[in-house]
Amino acid sequence: MTKAETEIIDHLHFHEKYLELVQQRRKTSTVRLGYVLPNAIQLPLVFGDMPLPEKAQIEKLDFTKSFSDLTEADALTDGFESLETLRADLKVFYPDITAEDRCTIIYFKLLPA
């Protein structure tokens, strides 16, 4: 996906390292580069190659922020201890991200299996 495109998703895909944070409900949002639209209110969860029996219910979408506009509050709901660690992690997944790049914040609730 290029930065300006809109991506339609049919599941929420995470790196395996976030599994425990989601299951403990300490990660209730995810920041994605560009405009990301779920195709349903409830989405399957996938961690690496492993689908979970639980689903995520999409609670809210925020298209208003650029990478530089992200806040400490955004970092906390995304399961990070600080804005600095969130930004560093995003740069691992999106090495070419710039301060002006638009982001989508997907807020979700873990549903029971």
If you had to describe this structure to a student in words, what would you say it looks like?
It is a single chain. The protein is an alpha/beta fold. The chain has one domain (6-110): Sulfate adenylyltransferase (Roll), CATH 3.10.400. Helices cover 19% and strands 38% of the residues. A hairpin with a 2-residue loop joins strand 5 (42-47) and strand 6. The mean pLDDT is 95. InterPro entries: ASCH_domain, PUA-like_sf. This is ASCH domain-containing protein. Residues 12-112 form the ASCH domain. It comes from Pontibacter amylolyticus.
**Number of helical stretches of at least 4 residues:** 3
Can you identify the CATH class?
Alpha Beta
What is the CATH architecture descriptor? Roll
Structural domain count: 1
Can you tell me the CATH topology? Sulfate adenylyltransferase
The secondary structure category is: alpha/beta
Q: Proportion of β residues?
A: 35-45%
Q: Tell me the span between the first and last alpha carbons.
A: 31 Å
Mean pLDDT: 95
The oligomeric state of the chains shown is single chain
* Topology, number of strands: 7
Order of helices and strands: EEHEEEEHHE
Segments where pLDDT lies below 50 for 5+ residues?
none
Domain ASCH: 12-112
Organism: Pontibacter amylolyticus
Pfam families: ASCH
Protein name: ASCH domain-containing protein
